[in-house]
Amino acid sequence: MPGVTLVNYGLGNIQAFANIYQRLNIPVEVAATPEQLAGAEKIILPGVGAFDWAMARLNNSGLRDILDLLVLERQVPVLGVCVGMQILARRSDEGDLPGLGWIDAEVARFDAVQIGDAPLPHMGWNDVQPISNDSLFQRIEAPRYYFLHSYYVVPRQQTEILATANYGNEFTSAVRKGHIFGTQFHPEKSHQWGIDLLRNFAVQ
Fold it and tell me: What is the dotted CATH code of the domain comprising 4-203?
């Protein structure tokens, strides 16, 4: 079974992901250097906080070039989580730095027209509606996940929307472009639904 490599650039709950994969008996490693990342077979790119902060940390980590090589040239599957999903896009309303640009998308802020009196950040549990039940959501019944965010990804290609959720209005909660995946929610905080999703990513 291919192992999963967690990208440690200083953001995200690395240990929570590692604990899940260890309980699943799926090989897992943490990479903080290009050398540690070079042999990755599956990559998870976590993230918390602001878009520019995440991009600055990643750009300064020494991992950006090897990530581009692995994902864009070698087609290694990658899963971005929360801000790790948002930085897959080209840009964000939250900041000025360019994103990775691995998916043709922008990141927008929830506004009052969309969510009415609902508070920001969007925090808590939400039902998720997969567009397709293959890949990440395979054999997951009534998926429900934990969210914590004020911004969301807007793909230009509708075919790259893997799932939606509703917070006043429908928004993209997961994306897929070939071997590139992203979830706005936190599977590592989402009980059995999250465990099943992380298993699906590892074994597909």
Answer: 3.40.50.880
